[in-house]
Amino acid sequence: MSRPEYEDILEGKRQYSDLGFSMEAYDPPRYKHCKPRAPEKVKEDVLNSTRVLSVIEQLATETDQSEDDLLSQARAMVEEMGHNLRMRSIRFFAYFLNKIFKALYKRIYVNGDDLEKLAKMSKDQPVLLLPSHRSYIDFLMLSYVAYCYDFPLPVIAAGADFMGMKFVGTLLRNCGAFFMRRSFGSDRLYWAVFTEYVQTLIRNGDSPMEFFVEGTRSRTSKSLSPKFGLLSAAIEPFLTGSVYDITVVPISISYDRRLEETLYARELLGIPKPKESTSGLVKARSVLQENYGNIHVCFGEPLSVRKLAEGRIDRSIHGLHPRHMSMFTSEEHTFVQHLAHQVILAQQKYMVISPWSLVAAVLSQHPQGLLLKKLVHEVVWLKKQAVGLGAFVNWPAKADPSNIVKSALELHHHVVTLGANGRVVLNLPTPTRPKMETEMARKHRLMEEAEVRLMVVTGTNQLLHVFVRVALVLMALSKDGSQTRDELFRIFGFLRRLLEKDFIFMPGQDKQDFDTAVQYLSRAHVLEERGGCVGVTDSGKKLQSFLHEMFSPFLLGYWTMCQYLLTASSDDPRGSTTQQLTRGAQDMAATLLTNGLVKRFEILSLDMLGNSITSFVSMGAVKRFKSNGHALFLPVQGEIFSLSKQIETIIAVPDLKTAVQVIPVKSRL
Amino acid sequence: MADHGNKKDAKSRRFETILGHVSSNDGPKSANDKDKVQLKMKKCGEVKSVISKHRQEVLKWNGWGYKDSKFIINKKGLAEFVGERYRLSGMVLPSLVTWMEKNTGGDIQHISPAQPERKPEDVPEPVTNEDFLKDVSELDISCSQDPLDREFHAHGHTLHEIFILREGRFKRVPDIVIWPGSHDDVVKVVRLATKHNVCIIPYGGGTTVSGALLCPEEETRMIVSLDMSQMNNILWLDEKNLTMCAEGGIIGQDLERELNLKGFTTGHEPDSIEFSSLGGWVATRSSGMKKNIYGNIEDLVVHVRMVTPRGVIEKNCQVPRMSTGPDIHHVIMGSEGTLGVVTEVTMKIRPLPEMKKYGSVIFRNFEDGVACLREIARQRCAPSSIRLMDNMQFQFGQALKPQAGSIFTSFVDGLKKMYITKWKGFDPNELCVATLLFEGAKEEVLAQEKRVYEIASQFRGLPAGEENGQRGYMLTFVIAYLRDLGLEHYIVSESFETSVPWDRVLDLCRNVKERLTRECHEKGVQFPPMNTCRVTQTYDSGACVYFYFAFNYRGLSDPVHVYEEVENAARDEILACGGSLSHHHGVGKLRKKWLSQTVSDVGIGMMKAVKQYTDPQNIFGSNNLITLEKAKL
Ligand SMILES: Cc1cc2nc3c(=O)[nH]c(=O)nc-3n(C[C@H](O)[C@H](O)[C@H](O)COP(=O)(O)OP(=O)(O)OC[C@H]3O[C@@H](n4cnc5c(N)ncnc54)[C@H](O)[C@@H]3O)c2cc1C
Predict the structure, then answer these.
(1) Does any domain span residue A176?
(2) Is B227 helix (H, G, I), strand (E, B) or coil?
(3) What is the domain-level CATH number for residue A607?
(4) How many domains in chain A?
(5) Given A487, A509, A542, which residue is the final one in a domain?
(6) Whose CA, among A85, B89, B457, B484, lies 20 to 30 Å from B152?
(7) Which domain of life is it from (chain A) (predicted)?
(8) Which candidate, B241, B244, B247, B252, places its Cα nearest to that of B228?
(9) Contact list, A244 vs chain B (CB under 8 Å)
(10) Cβ–Cβ gap B578/A242 under 8 Å
(11) Counting runs of H as helices and runs of E as strands, what totals does chain B give?
């Protein structure tokens, strides 16, 4: 796919009545082998499937439950799960969404030509729509876009947390949502019912199936590491030859400003989030009075699972076991993992970077704010860098850059203000005099400040995937500016592994990632060869220091976690939960911040601190084990220590020895 | 040898009489003085074959079947089947041309003629091993180095081979054709070949569709095509045990005709029965359409003699079953001419059934049809033959409808009349037909018929008459002639088959068709291909599926290559969908590259070990199935 061509789908609808729109002819194409059936029939088919029946039979012999009992359990599961896609609801939704979207957004851009091509393809094979997930709006938006383009409405795998909401739950079901429990670990019956539900829909191609490879909404606006369960289930019909091919469509949905921005910032800090309830959404009405700018929905290059599997997977192996038994070979596991990563990388590739994101990136490096002129200058520079790396930036060519920046500021007036003095500053809570503050109050104020700062951070986050590979190369160089290629690759490899959970890298492709990054940097005259070593050019210094600033908060966060873990007594065999660890480290980070030992508020993010644990586990620096069904973690002190030391070679960290009194006695347990 | 005491039996005597009428065989047999004892015993069973020794006198040299039978486009531009041998012979088929044009995007005006008669100089010069020739000439066994004889034995009937005959020439053909007259002749020839290091390729009916008869191009030794046609005697028939023994060269139709005269049948009816041979069936593990009653070749064979370079392999008894280690028959069956020559086969026979009745059922769609066949198989009440054609094949059958006035009235019109009320719901573009053949005692047949139609009705299937069933089976023989008509008009076509578990039948059919269509498109075929399939055999645990596939190759420089790539892709698809490499056509050279993944490396190793022991010099050097490393010679 070349550069996507966008059109604004709201434009035509502004003069047109919502009712008229919702009554338009809607006659989408259908998968050619589909045998149409009602949602109720789908459920029946699931309950009558060999997969479900055989699990019921097994469970009946293994446990003391009767087959009838199990069958009614299965029925309850499929009822809880099932969608109820109906034309009437679609029309209602069309009406409703049309109204709301026109109010909320200035423009909704869609690469319509590509979607039309996709509609044609959807006749030939079942389609998986795999959008990025950064807002509740995502799936509403996608169904709305589908309706606009006469594209078949998808059925959507949604988290079961919506199910609780009576009205919304029903509404969503009627619009094609089906529900998946968040965790059903070893419940074989649930797994069988769910797998069959997904697969029967794919085999028969009743509707395109939409789900989020990331598993949940990304609060940070960074892509989350993919989940493989649902994708595996969805791909399996191809592996067993039940369908000829499956088309996988990565979809990037980019927002200028998300509805839930404040909510997310609080969540990241661990300020409790309201449970998703209907009344909660209604309260959000005031949210609806704001302007949220533009949305870009980009349907990425469709991937043919068959083509991707060619030469990698021998499907004939599945001739050796009954078809209702799921079996994955290790090649197939790897294949699904790669596919999932490929999808997320493709989503990233077609993300549209909003000017706000650039503004935020510059602002995060100027905690005290800066002059508009300087800001514009920096933003223009940064834009150039991003575009050089292939990012799509929403930057009207003819517009005056300072107007672009100003409207980005305007759109985010809840976060920043352009003062009369021409200075751009964050809307931070007014400082009180520190001396008179209690510890509690200081923490509280810190969190309030963090809330605003994190909203800037989530803006920046949308940009990180563009730079991450070159940034890691440049950071690997930071100390004395020049390194042998091998050494550079080693440190790059270390950083890539360390940050694997925070950024998306294709597994096993360290070398390619490194080579492409180095190649790019050399061509851009940022790097040069100096007698067998690689070093940064003078003109490259700016990019290096900018990216260093941009990414060092992650290392700082991980380092903080290291320090926290090092204070834990190494012989305590009881272990701690992630929550205990992240909260503890967050406390420590807060202390570091209030004492002015560090400046970056990112390290308060529970998300980042959690990622550091996962990363430490996979690097062998933290041991994970189960106790009473809970995952517990234990640091391996020596490993943590050496990790911490390695990080210290890359970023500057406060000297805790001289500031030892600020380290709180470990607050956990 | 077995006891022949029961020859005095009344039917046996009649057998002798009848054969006395027909056998006027004055061929090479008279030469076999040395085998007098053997001959005396044989005399009772000499068979006059429909096929002549020099096959090209009766058969096409560059196409399918009898010289006098073929499809032509008559002066009115309509298709006509000429000749006198078949029920369709002499009939005009008014809708065939239109159908072909519609389904392959072709135009009957575009002609791609074959080269005229083969010139002897176009056939490669023979490689001769003088010492071998000298020794052979002393044996007094019939042989020929005539180029046309040699070329005729150079091939089977894959598209590739026929295309070479029509438009090119073979790089390598047999250097001599030898017609042994008896088991002992074969022993002698094999011994000489081993002595002089000459390669032998046994030749039965020449109907193989796996490239099994092709001479390896790299073969530098002299190649003998050992034509078994003169070994076509029925040696004896044993009514007590219901077995008969015949020589390996006997052609299916001759064997059946003779047995029928005596009131028996083997019941083995591959579609190629007119031309394929008993030895060929054994060598390829063939399957006949009536296997539901009679069994496949492996169920029918009681005893085999095979001459190998190591000596003769056979069992010392003719028993229904034994537990004596791995069954050596299963090494012989499917050996595809790589281990030795099948000279004599004892096979089960059955009395001719009292009643034979055709039938047919229409289904709303292929899915219903497959579900019905599956149920019939589950209940183990499949008639002698049951075949399910998909919609395209059904329509194709319609296109082969001759002008009015024959048994061939319009199928759809007939049905509409039959089912004025029930016809609703049958979409002519979806429906499909199963053809049935019942055999047995009258009441059995009628009861079975009833049961089958009852099951069919559970799957919304309606009986569609005997005529339609019969027509289906009759067309089977004629369809093979159609490829030659297509080739005259830029249309290449081929068939291939597989076996597959029941629950994968539909998916396999759908995916393979899809693959064929897409591959053609990708390979630059300008018109959508015609692809169609039918389920031709049912088993307890699965079915045999048969595909026909054709495309118009105008605009392609190397249609055969494109064809082969597409067929390879289709085979990959079959395997991926859980199908087998072959249900009955065999491996030959065409499907060799998939054999190790099919039977595992150890499996291949075992085959090699058997080959290595039996034929270390690779005398039977057709290189089918496996390639033996040269080093060990
Ligand atoms: C139109 C058509 C329809 C067909 N239908 C069927 C069908 O319904 N079922 C089926 O099973 N097959 C079918 N076939 C395939 C083919 O007819 C069979 O494989 C048949 O068994 C081959 O017998 P043949 O005598 O023609 O052997 P050939 O083609 O002459 O030879 C086949 C292989 O067997 C070897 N061979 C032949 N005779 C001997 C012998 N006496 N000793 C040792 N090796 C020998 C040859 O060397 C060669 O490798 C069909 C083919 C065609 C063209």
Answers:
(1) yes
(2) strand
(3) 1.10.10.10
(4) 3
(5) A542
(6) B89
(7) Eukaryota
(8) B247
(9) 510-511, 514-515
(10) no
(11) 20, 21
B374 contacts chain A (CB < 8 A): no
CATH of residue A113's domain is: 3.40.1130
CB distance from B576 to chain A under 8 Å?
A: yes
Q: What is the pLDDT of residue A273?
A: 57
User: Quick one: average pLDDT of A627-651?
Assistant: 92
In a domain? residue A602: yes
What's the pTM? 0.91
Cα within 13 Å of Cα(A261), Cβ side: 25
Question: Does residue A430 sit in the same domain as residue A568?
Answer: no
Q: Which residues of A touch B577 (CB under 8 A)?
A: 241, 315, 319
What phi and psi, each to the nearest 5 degrees, are found at residue A355?
-55, -30
Q: What does the pLDDT average to over A495-508? A: 96
Judge if A325 and A422 occupy the same domain.
no
Same domain for A595 and A457: no
Instruction: Indicate whether A89 and A204 sit together in one domain.
Output: yes
Atom of ligand 1 nearest to the CA of B202: 47
Instruction: Tell me how crowded residue B316 is: count the other CB atoms within 10 A of its CB.
Output: 7
Q: Is residue A631 part of a domain?
A: yes
DSSP 8-state symbol, A290: S
CB < 8 Å to A316, chain B: 575-576, 578, 597
Question: Do residues A314 and A240 both lie within one domain?
Answer: yes
Strand partners, B388: B434, B535
Could A319 and B504 be called an inter-chain contact, meaning their C-beta atoms sit closer than 8 Å? yes
Q: How far is CA A348 from CA A70, A133, A201, A268, in A?
A: 43, 11, 28, 22
Catalytic residue among B66, B546, B553, B563: B546
Domain end, chosen from A350, A374, A400, is at A350
A245 and A286 part of one domain: yes
Nearest-CA distance B604 → chain A (Å): 18
Domain that holds residue A178: 85-350
End-to-end Cα separation, chain B, in angstroms: 35
Cα-to-centroid distance, B245 and ligand 1 (Å): 19
pLDDT for A224: 96
Residue B86 appears among annotated catalytic residues: no
Torsion sign (Cα): A350, A352, A358, A364: negative
Q: Does the CB of B169 have a partner CB in chain A at under 8 Å?
A: no
Report the residue of A316, A325, A327 to disrupt the B interface, i.e. the one with the largest count of B CBs within 10 Å: A316
Identify whether residues A100 and A159 lie together within a single domain. Answer: yes
Q: Is B284 annotated as a binding residue?
A: yes
Asked if residue A615 and residue A522 are part of one domain, the reply reads no
Range ranked top by mean pLDDT from A124-128, A532-536, B108-112: A124-128
> Are B562 and B544 within 8 A, CB to CB?
no
- The contact set of A with B (CB < 8 A) is 33, 241-244, 314-316, 318-319, 323
Residue A577 falls within a domain, yes or no? yes
The verdict on B511 touching A (C-beta cutoff 8 Å) is: yes
Cβ-contact B399, B436 below 8 angstroms: no
- Tracing tokens 């446990």 back to the chain, one arrives at A63
Q: Residue written as tokens 């079901």?
A: A173
Q: Do residues A495 and A475 lie in contact, with contact meaning Cβ atoms separated by under 8 Å?
A: yes
Distance from CA of A122 to the nearest CA of B (A): 15
* Ligand 1: lining residues by beta carbon, under 6 Å: B 156-157, 201-209, 212-213, 228, 248, 270-272, 276-277, 279-281, 283-284, 286-287, 336-337, 341-342, 480, 584-586, 622, 624
Is the pLDDT score of B234 beyond 70? yes
Distance between alpha carbon A647 and the CA centroid of its chain, in Å? Answer: 25
Q: What is the overall mean pLDDT for chain B?
A: 90
Residue closest by Cα to atom 18 of ligand 1 = B208
How far is the C-alpha of B379 from the C-alpha of B357, rounded, in Å? Answer: 20
A344 within 8 A of A504, measured Cβ to Cβ = yes
